[in-house]
């Protein structure tokens, strides 16, 4: 249950705590009073009911810019046999071929969205596996879900295929048309192929012709020789591609010689790429070998990126599928784990922007705000400071949408049992 019940109608929340950067101020945490009226944050006025929040932390509702709603919650019927990346690829491919009908994708996607909504997320970008014929199955479902969830969670979709499936006049061009008709983002996974530059040039041409932003899965490996991120940055600069470009994962940077990695980051900064790190999934998959303790965390060079002015975000990635056996699209969990995994503490005071403002800027979502006139879409935690926030899961948080306290009851996993039994 929520740690307290708030009034209906207009009211004032006194004695809140929020990161100073969310109000454009220097420092760490500062006190804040918020007036809620007409579904918005309003200028305070006398005579409204007041609630003493006793230092509770408040955030705008979160943005989760890298998810896989089409894969989510298949683990009971498609468990990763060994926890490896290849085990995930193989298992998902078999499950997709056997089970990803419109009904199956829709039910799991809706389950995931209800979870995200209950946790306090207001905008999501999802990647959709798009090898034909799956593109013609999943994108129509996505369009239906986007309409169904309008006003609760704003949704974007990016197609997902391997770079060796990208060409200017093959099936991928038809996928790009589906993406454009869906108001989506053009995406693919990059890894070393002999004609990488040719295929990426085709990719950027297809995106530019359709006016699409780009979103890549990049170098999701601990092999230091894998460096497709550099090629993406070089081609953005060479072609003048001017739509937003996001690169996710970028794991191999962390194991490359520093001079090489830093030279790539300089190019990434010059090209204006957005980076999204997925620390929970990458810690799960990377450097996994039977009987051997992992030697690194899988996370990319987020501190070095921020030092170069690169727009860095964090996101959930996979949930209860072969790429990550856990997770629930809970951005407070992502923020807590990213802080621990990537040592965001004892660092700059504005890392919270990587879960709010930065992903909004990367994806074009409405910027989160606590200023008067902004929607009263808020997440309030009983915690009064960072150590309290990260020490517990904040399962009694309050979520306001349009100024109204929502029911945060999570969907029961048993709802999906019939899909698992069919397997």
TrEMBL record:
<dbReference type="InterPro" id="IPR013108">
    <property type="entry name" value="Amidohydro_3"/>
</dbReference>
<feature type="domain" description="Amidohydrolase 3">
    <location>
        <begin position="200"/>
        <end position="404"/>
    </location>
</feature>
<feature type="domain" description="Amidohydrolase 3">
    <location>
        <begin position="50"/>
        <end position="99"/>
    </location>
</feature>
<dbReference type="GO" id="GO:0004131">
    <property type="term" value="F:cytosine deaminase activity"/>
</dbReference>
<dbReference type="GO" id="GO:0035888">
    <property type="term" value="F:isoguanine deaminase activity"/>
</dbReference>
<protein>
    <submittedName>
        <fullName>Amidohydrolase</fullName>
    </submittedName>
</protein>
<keyword id="KW-0378">Hydrolase</keyword>
<dbReference type="InterPro" id="IPR032466">
    <property type="entry name" value="Metal_Hydrolase"/>
</dbReference>
<dbReference type="InterPro" id="IPR011059">
    <property type="entry name" value="Metal-dep_hydrolase_composite"/>
</dbReference>
<dbReference type="Pfam" id="PF07969">
    <property type="entry name" value="Amidohydro_3"/>
</dbReference>
<keyword id="KW-0479">Metal-binding</keyword>
<dbReference type="GO" id="GO:0046872">
    <property type="term" value="F:metal ion binding"/>
</dbReference>
<dbReference type="InterPro" id="IPR052349">
    <property type="entry name" value="Metallo-hydrolase_Enzymes"/>
</dbReference>
<dbReference type="GO" id="GO:0006209">
    <property type="term" value="P:cytosine catabolic process"/>
</dbReference>
């Amino acid at each position: 249950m929520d740690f307290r019940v708030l009034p209906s109608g207009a009211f004032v929340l006194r004695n809140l705590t929020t990161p100073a950067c969310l109000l454009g101020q220097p420092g760490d945490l500062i006190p804040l009073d918020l007036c809620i009226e007409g579904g918005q944050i309003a200028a305070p006025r006398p005579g409204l009911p007041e609630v003493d929040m006793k230092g509770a932390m408040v955030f705008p509702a979160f943005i989760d810019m890298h998810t896989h709603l089409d894969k989510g919650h298949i683990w009971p019927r498609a468990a990763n046999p060994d926890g490896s990346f290849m085990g995930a690829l193989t298992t998902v491919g078999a499950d997709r071929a056997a089970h990803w009908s419109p009904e199956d994708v829709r039910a799991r996607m809706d389950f995931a969205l209800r979870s995200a909504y209950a946790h306090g997320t207001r905008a999501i970008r999802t990647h959709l596996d798009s090898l034909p014929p799956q593109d013609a199955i999943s994108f129509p479902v996505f369009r239906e879900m986007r309409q169904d969830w309008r006003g609760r969670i704003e949704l974007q979709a990016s197609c997902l295929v391997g770079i060796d499936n990208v060409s200017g006049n093959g099936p991928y061009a038809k996928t790009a048309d589906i993406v454009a008709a869906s108001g989506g983002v053009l995406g693919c996974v990059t890894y070393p192929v002999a004609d990488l530059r040719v295929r990426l040039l085709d990719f950027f041409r297809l995106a530019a012709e359709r006016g699409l932003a780009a979103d890549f899965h990049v170098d999701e490996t601990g092999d230091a020789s894998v460096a497709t991120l550099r090629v993406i940055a070089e081609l953005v600069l060479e072609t003048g591609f001017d739509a937003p470009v996001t690169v996710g994962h970028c794991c191999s940077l962390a194991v490359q010689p520093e001079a090489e990695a830093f030279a790539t980051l300089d190019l990434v900064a010059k090209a204006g790429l957005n980076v999204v790190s997925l620390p929970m999934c990458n810690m799960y998959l990377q450097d996994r070998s039977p009987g051997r303790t992992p030697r690194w965390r899988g996370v990319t060079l987020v501190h070095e990126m921020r030092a170069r002015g690169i727009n860095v975000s964090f996101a959930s990635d996979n949930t209860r599928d072969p790429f990550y056996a856990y997770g629930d699209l809970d951005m407070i969990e992502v923020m807590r784990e990213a802080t621990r995994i990537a040592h965001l503490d004892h660092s700059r005071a504005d890392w919270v922007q990587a879960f709010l403002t930065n992903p909004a800027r990367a994806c074009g979502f409405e910027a989160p705000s606590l200023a008067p006139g902004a929607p009263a879409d808020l997440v309030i935690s009983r915690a009064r400071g960072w150590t309290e926030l990260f020490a517990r899961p904040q399962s009694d948080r309050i979520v306001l949408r349009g100024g109204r306290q929502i029911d945060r009851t999570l969907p029961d996993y048993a709802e999906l049992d019939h899909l698992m039994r069919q397997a």
